[in-house]
Amino acid sequence: MPHRHGIARLKELQPLESGLFYFSIVACLFVGPFTVYRFMLGHWFQAFVDTYVLILASYCMVQIYRRGTSDFLHLIVSISLAAAAASVTAANGVNSIYWMYPTIAISFFLVPLNTALIISGLLILTISAIIYDPDYLARTATIVITMMVSYLCTYFIFRSYREIENKLKRQAQIDALTGAGNRLAFDKEIKKALELSKCDKQSAALLMFDLDDFKTINDSFGHDVGDRVLIETVELVTNNIRESDRLFRYGGEEFAIILSATEITAALRVAEKVRATIEAYDFAVERPITISGGITPCKGHFDTNSWIKSADNLLYTAKDNGKNQIVH
Prior knowledge:
This protein is of the alpha+beta class. Helices cover 68% and strands 9% of the residues. The two termini are 47 Å apart.
């Protein structure tokens, strides 16, 4: 049913999308009556400014509901609200100064910190010039100081919030044991690699590999030794691939490497180098440590699942052929 589809769509919204969506609803509910009232009183300029805010809020709701949000939309909303706050203050004087304070907070919520600093800073300078009155210097100074305090406090609050948010995002995409990217990060990156390969015609290859007979390491030497082998494997691989290539722990002892902007011949050389490095390394375990892998280039008919399945099937071919080898 349509209403169920709508509820499901709203539940899928990301926090920033959800915040802007519901802010737009609140803006329509609160600004709408003011708009009607000002048209009735003949306050045409303020009425048209309010109408513009209503149109912008309505557009945001529709756009977010249908397609999601975007950085450009956030920028337009932030600039538009700042312009509206300055315009209303110019028309009404200090009586409308209060719209400036939520406008500052919204700007820091929507756009990057440096952009918000510029937009809010220009808004404060503009409003300070508008309300300046030599006969009321104490009042003007009080308003300017409170604007600056709000400006700086909002900046430091959101800077702390963004730092925590970025840290949590990084942690959410890193395997806690090895430091490689985790399955969540892999799912995101392989989609990007697939899109780049198809849209920008950039060659890319996917290498799937795992440690041969890894279960026997855990069984014979203990899980602490097995964990150390996994950690050292990630260190070895990371040191033998480019910074632009991404290593992920796909699950258990299985790993994946996305080799971006790489032809299959070059990708095979990297894969073989990784295999040989692991084979030659002394893991301080009383048995050889080797890997088996499958590597496949991105092909035009692939989606993410078929690309992964292709590389994974080649990995199992390597296992069947005797292990300690890369198959393509």
